[in-house]
């Protein structure tokens, strides 16, 4: 019985997510596109909950919905988000569709091949409890973790370098 | 008394109804407390007439008044986004209440990732504020929304980090575990770290509620009511009043849970254990609410640039040091 409900809920979220994702790329209003993206990401979080990965689900909400989409909206509103019926479009739709389709094909092929029909019992995987997840990250996956943190640090330093005013150069220009 | 057997769905329904009742009632009571506390701090009486006894029904009357107001959507507004925004702001506030333990067994859901859930859900309302500001087609609303988003992002970090300090001390993310691990009010023990974390949390919480002194996003002398300028009637109540009060009640609950020992007696002394946890929680909760209300008539409004500087250059470094200090404490003491 429980499995049936899980299946039903999965399909409800999967369909809603796919529709939202479709609207992200077809909507001609950038802010609407960003809001549809919120729907897609929340759907992904719901799917994580269905897979018993509660912690990952809330990370998804905190990082993607609470920070990344907010920053996107913030950037859009500061720059070019006219209110009303303004349309934004460009002529790269075909190219974008090809790239996105190819990416989708490759990742789904890899996913299907990687699991190769094995039945994973998600209730028993480490992702269920936050503690178990932490232990795995800081033991088996410590190297990727450190690499990612170095990458983020580099990005942070890069952002500061780009954003800061170089006083020497400015003084030179003023001469 | 016969055992009442409820199915999982019935229990869920009861829980949802309780939350849906508590939040508006809490918001109304909070609003009344705000009127009265502020009035007495300023040597006024505050509202005295509605309802008879000390004007207890003031906020209720206010709410009813808003029900009768015309619901206006500006012509140039983006209708769909404009009407969705109040829900996007208010629903996350409701969701916060799920994991606040009023007593050892009085909690809607003791999630394994308790406080992480709190922080994640709390971050969703920012999108609602941006939606409200952008869709209103009003420059003041847009400026307010941008200020709001910048502020909510900046002050979310100190809150997350101070909560992380508590989680490190307790070695768990579950709110029940966190309360159980606190022998003293956490704000006092371990020495210093907890107290500073509590101050950082409270400052961040006031900023998240966009209340004085951090109310730049809704500064009436500059940008009317910021993102909510174009809202009227019930939409205004839900997006601004209920959201602010609901947030205040929620943050008071979170503060009590994380830093003040939740439902446990103020000192670990067995005769005090007789008093039910609900009462201890209520006392500490009232103290937190009073603190929030006290801040409002006490401080002047902080300027926008000072506000950002204070978050990034003072609060965040302080909370990072706290995380390090707590790490050292947990490892070596």
Query: What is the CATH class name of the domain at 1-83 in chain A?
Result: Mainly Alpha
CATH architecture of the domain at 1-83 in chain A: Up-down Bundle
| CA-based gyration radius of chain B | 20 Å
Number of strands of chain A: 0
Q: Unreliable segments of chain B (pLDDT under 50, ≥5 consecutive)? A: none
Q: Beta fraction of the residues of chain A?
A: under 5%
Shape of chain A: globular
- Helix fraction of chain B, binned, reads 55-70%
The largest pleated sheet of chain A is described as: none
How confident overall, as mean pLDDT of chain B? 82
Q: Please give the largest β-sheet of chain B.
A: none
> Distance between the terminal alpha carbons of chain B, to the nearest Å?
49 Å
CATH level-3 fold name of the domain at 1-83 in chain A: Four Helix Bundle (Hemerythrin (Met), subunit A)
**Helix proportion range of chain A:** over 70%
Largest interface, and how many residues on either side? A-B, 27 and 32 residues
What can you see in these coordinates?
The complex is a heterodimer of chains A (175) and B (333). By secondary structure, chain A is mainly alpha-helical. Chain A has a domain at 1-83: Four Helix Bundle (Hemerythrin (Met), subunit A), CATH 1.20.120. Chain A is 76% helix and 0% strand. Chain A contains seven helices and no strands. The model of chain A has no long low-confidence stretch (mean pLDDT 81). Chain B contains twelve helices and no strands. By secondary structure, chain B is an all-alpha fold. Chain B has helices spanning 8-41, 58-67, 79-96, 114-122, 125-135, 139-170, 175-181, 193-208, 220-223, 233-259, 277-295, 304-332. Chain B is globular and about 60 Å long. Chain B has one domain. Classes of the chains: A mainly alpha (175), B mainly alpha (333). At the A-B interface, helix 2 and helix 3 of A face helix 4, helix 5 and helix 6 of B.
């Amino acid at each position: 019985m429980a499995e049936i409900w899980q299946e039903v809920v999965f399909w409800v979220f999967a369909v809603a997510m796919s529709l939202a994702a479709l609207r992200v790329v077809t909507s001609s209003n950038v802010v609407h596109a960003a809001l549809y993206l919120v729907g897609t990401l929340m759907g992904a979080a719901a799917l994580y909950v269905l897979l018993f990965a509660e912690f990952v689900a809330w990370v998804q909400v905190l990082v993607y919905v609470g920070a990344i989409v907010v920053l996107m909206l913030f950037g859009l509103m500061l720059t070019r988000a006219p209110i009303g019926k303004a349309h934004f479009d460009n002529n790269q739709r075909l190219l974008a569709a090809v790239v996105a389709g190819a990416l989708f094909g490759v990742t789904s092929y890899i996913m299907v091949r990687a699991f190769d029909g094995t039945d994973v019992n998600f209730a028993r995987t480490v992702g269920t409890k936050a503690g178990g997840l932490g232990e795995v990250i800081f033991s088996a996956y410590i190297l990727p973790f450190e690499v990612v943190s170095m990458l983020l640090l580099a990005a942070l330093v890069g952002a500061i370098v780009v954003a800061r005013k170089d006083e020497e150069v400015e003084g030179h220009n003023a001469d | 008394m016969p055992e009442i057997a409820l199915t999982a769905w019935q229990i869920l329904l009861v829980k949802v109804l309780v939350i849906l009742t508590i939040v508006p009632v809490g918001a109304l009571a909070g609003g009344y407390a705000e009127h009265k506390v502020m009035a007495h701090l300023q040597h006024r009486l505050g509202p005295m007439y509605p309802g008879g006894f000390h004007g207890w029904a003031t906020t209720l009357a206010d709410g009813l008044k808003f029900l009768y107001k015309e619901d206006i959507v500006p012509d140039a507004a983006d209708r769909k986004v404009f009407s969705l925004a109040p829900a996007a702001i208010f629903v996350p506030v409701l969701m916060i209440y799920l994991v606040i333990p009023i007593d050892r067994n009085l909690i809607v859901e003791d999630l394994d990732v308790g406080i992480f859930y709190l922080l994640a859900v709390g971050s969703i309302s920012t999108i609602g504020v941006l939606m409200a500001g952008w869709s209103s087609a009003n420059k003041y609303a847009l400026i307010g929304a941008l200020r709001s988003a910048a502020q909510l992002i900046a002050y979310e970090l100190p809150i997350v980090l101070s909560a992380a300090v508590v989680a490190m001390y307790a070695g768990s993310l579950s709110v029940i575990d966190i309360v159980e691990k606190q022998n003293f009010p956490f704000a006092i023990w371990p020495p210093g770290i907890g107290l500073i974390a509590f101050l950082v949390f409270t400052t961040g919480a006031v900023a998240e509620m966009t209340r004085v002194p951090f109310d730049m996003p809704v500064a009436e002398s500059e940008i009317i009511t910021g993102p909510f300028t174009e809202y009227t009637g019930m939409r205004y109540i839900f997006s601004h009043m209920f959201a602010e009060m609901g947030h205040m009640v929620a943050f008071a609950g979170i503060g009590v849970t994380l830093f003040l020992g939740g439902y446990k007696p103020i000192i670990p002394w067995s005769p005090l254990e007789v008093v039910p946890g609900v009462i201890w929680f209520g006392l500490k909760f009232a103290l937190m609410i009073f603190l929030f209300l006290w801040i409002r008539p006490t401080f002047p409004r902080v300027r926008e640039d000072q506000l950002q500087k204070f978050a990034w250059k003072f609060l965040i470094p302080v909370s990072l040091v706290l995380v390090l200090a707590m790490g050292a404490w947990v490892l070596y003491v």
